[in-house]
Amino acid sequence: MSDSPSLQVEPGRVVLSGCWTLAEMLPQLPVLQARLATCPAGVEHWDLAAVTRLDSAAAVLLWRSWGGAWPSALVISDLHRQALLRVAGLPQELHEPARPRVPFPEMIGALVLKAGGNLRGMVALFGQLLLDLAYLARHPQDVPWKECTANVYKAGAQALAVTAMVGFLIGVTISYLSALQLKSFGADLFIVNILGISIIRELGPVLVAVLVAGRSGSAMTAQIGVMRVTEEIDVLSTMGISRSIRVVLPKIIGLTVAMPLLVLWTSAVALFGGMLAALLQLDLSLIYFLDNLPRAVPVANLIIGLSKGVVFGFVIAIVACHFGLHVKPNTESLSANTTSAVVTAITTVILFDAIFAVFTRQIGVPQL
Amino acid sequence: MSQPPVIALDGVCASYRGKAVHRDLSLRVEAGQIVGLLGGSGSGKTTLLREILGLLRPDSGSVRLFGVDLNDPDIETQRNLRRRLGMLFQHGALFSALSVFDNIAFPLRELRCLDADWIRRLVHLKLAMVGLEPDHGKLMPAELSGGMVKRVALARALALEPELLLLDEPTAGLDPDRSQNFVELVGDLQRELGLTVVMVTHDLNTLAGLATHVAVLADQHIIAFGPKAEVMTVDHPFVTGFFGADRRKLL
Q: Is B250 a residue whose pLDDT tops 60?
């Protein structure tokens, strides 16, 4: 008795023997399939008595080579006949549901509708937030202080190191590149203006927003998303705890509070980096730089920078929470929504930055 | 020619966070046996299954399946070994991003040898085996009821025609009718294919209907292993508690 499946074509009949299982067939599958295919169509006598094992994969293979009908003479043990009977019981025509091809305009339309749906969802979330705040104003004992402070710590305090490092490097880079240009004009002293305005007003907030969107925004989406996948969100509802007050609100408040502080910190470190580079490149003393900074950069810029921080923090948190709440209970949706959250958050931040630039174009520009 | 035992655990010790889960555990399952693994909650039944699967490496001792050591460094050997066993996880562990059809078809497609029609027929066959309609193939795991998840998971475990089937609480969460069907199904498969089955179960009906042998896990090792009737007579608090007087009538 050999274990491997084998097939012998004798005049007028086909004899199968051995172990016809998927594992045993795999190594010689092409050969077996070819030999089954070359079996003369007229052969109606199949001898499977010597088959030791016959699993459903082999049964399907045989059934297909028989063209979906029982051969007129079949020698087989009852046990193996069972396996074949199961295959025979299947409907002959099995259609795999064809995936409908979506025409291009329809795809664009679907994307626009989806974007509209997301916008609507975020506006609804914003409205819910206002309602929650109104509720909390009337019931101050329900304010989730602990969660809020925990979020300030997670999104703010734990991000200090990475924002400082990135800010410092960006400060050094900008200072270094501007110094090269300014030197050729002999306008060395304007490095204070360039660094001050660009970092405090523009780069600090945007840089922090991008970092925080990648760091805290994705974490928020993933956390709320997993809570949805594991039905923890539903547990909160059954306990009568509002998910928006307990889960969403602390994240939004936490990030809205933490962002301007992070912006202040990052801008300061970036300026420090710029100052160091200016000292090395242009021999501009730190004292001179600090003395001239208030004159070159009106305090309005700092206020604009910090208010950008507040708005960006709010936007990132609301986008992240919106996408988190719309995760469907599967891994694919979780990854898609986390990606969408980060991309949308960064895009929205840049959009708001542009709006800021347009509406504050007359504020805080130093008069020379 | 004597076949090596399907599962051979020798002197397995395992610990979880410094607490011993298994101490000098040995178990030998021969081909064709249906072993019911009993033990109290937290006695390390699932840990034992994970050790057999190679998901968890014991601190010491050896685990051999079909005579092959699980620590064998050869990737090819390891892969071929894994193809010979199917596992039904306690909570199904279906791929949540794939439909029911794709879940069952996944291991078959990974073989890269079978054509689409063959896979389609096999998937529908497995669906029919576990009592699901072809239409259920389009559903996503999140849309299934608990019992259906179990059945799809079983269909997936059976997809590669395993010789060794490991079941973690297979009938928990099924209604009595379905669990009876399940018992008959596994029994049929076992007779047809000579399957070896190891199952963790607390359900006496499943145990009575299916198991040929019973292994009792207590005090960090197998305290009793043998044919059902023999094990019932073992004098150990867990065994006497589990097969209490009125329960014994059931078997």
A: no
Pairing of strands B85-88, B164-168: parallel
B218 inside domain: no
pTM: 0.74
Instruction: Count how many Cα atoms sit within 13 Å of the Cα of residue B183 in the half-sphere of its side chain.
Output: 21
DSSP E strand stretches across chain A: 6-10, 13-20, 45-54, 73-75
Rounded CA-CA distance A249/A137 in Å is 13
Cα–Cα distance for residue pair A207/A164, rounded to 1 Å = 11
Strands laid side by side in the B68-69 sheet: B19-29, B7-16, B60-65, B68-69
- State the pLDDT at residue A118: 93
Asked whether residue B35 is assigned to any structural domain, the reply reads no
Q: Which residues contact B172 (CB under 8 A, 6 or more apart)?
A: B90, B201, B202, B203
Q: Which of the four pLDDT bands, split at 50, 70 and 90, describes residue A367?
A: low
Residue B9 pLDDT > 70, yes or no? yes
Q: What is the distance in angstroms between the Cα of A150 and the nearest Cα belonging to chain B?
A: 29
Q: Which of B120, B138, B142 sits opposite A329 (nearest CB)?
A: B142
Chain B contact residues (CB < 8 Å to A): 80, 83-84, 95-97, 101, 111, 113-114, 116-118, 120-122, 124-126, 128-129, 134, 138, 140-142, 160-161, 163, 188, 191-194
Count the Cβ atoms, other than its own, within 10 Å of residue B41: 6
Residue B30 lies in a domain: no
Q: How many domains, chain B?
A: 1
Range of the domain at B118: 95-161
Q: Does domain A6-88 have CATH number 3.30.750?
A: yes
Q: Give the pLDDT confidence of A245-303 residue by residue, as tens digits.
A: 889 999 999 999 999 999 999 999 999 999 999 999 888 889 999 998 988 888 999 99
For residue B95, list chain A residues with Cβ-Cβ distance below 8 A. 331
Write the Ramachandran bin of B220: left for phi over 0, alpha for psi from -120 to 50, otherwise beta.
left
Of the partner residues B129, B161, B192, the one whose CB lies closest to the CB of residue A23: B161
Assess if residue B197 is contained within a domain. no
For B164, the token pair is: 């060794």
- Confidence at A1, pLDDT banded by 50, 70, 90: very low
